[in-house]
């Protein structure tokens, strides 16, 4: 099965290892992965800030970049959620609406793709650590991916998976929200950090690096010894430490 990787801005700039783990995981599951180099930002930051005209330029570039892809997979529920909004944004535009629909229909967050398209709930990973999972807002509320990540994590061998208290709460990042509402965002991140502490987890895992960077930064400033890891790092781990 041929798959095109959409790397996302955050992963490309701050967490290139996530791209590596995503590719290795997909190849382990029998996929042939390519990387369309014309891809750019999905347009979400500009769109959410009200710059629709400017955002559409990036969106059109993404449509062109993945025009010939069979599937588009990204290690981010937030960015894929944005691609799924393209048909609404280009509604009535005779030149771009149909292509926007085509891109939205073939775009998947990585765990969603593994479970819903590949039909896998056990990827053969082993991770003998205590882990909790943060369900990011865009991934759960916009994209609607709630069960796939948890199913995959619970099937990881030797993992000690524990539910995160009040997991539905936002971490306080929210893109430009963290910049425009600094004090509220900080308070939300502190609350999320406290909930992670309550689990006594060694690792905080998530599907969106922006959230993990936000929570991880807060925990680091608080002096907490909890590592953050994108879910692909866990699912791509095949060696036991024993």
From TrEMBL:
UniProt cross-references to Pfam families, sorted A to Z: CCG (PF02754)
GO molecular function, one term: oxidoreductase activity
Domain of life: Bacteria
Residues annotated as domain Cysteine-rich: 7-84, 131-215
GO annotations of cellular component type: cytosol
Protein name (database record): (Fe-S)-binding protein
Species of provenance: Candidatus Pseudogracilibacillus intestinigallinarum
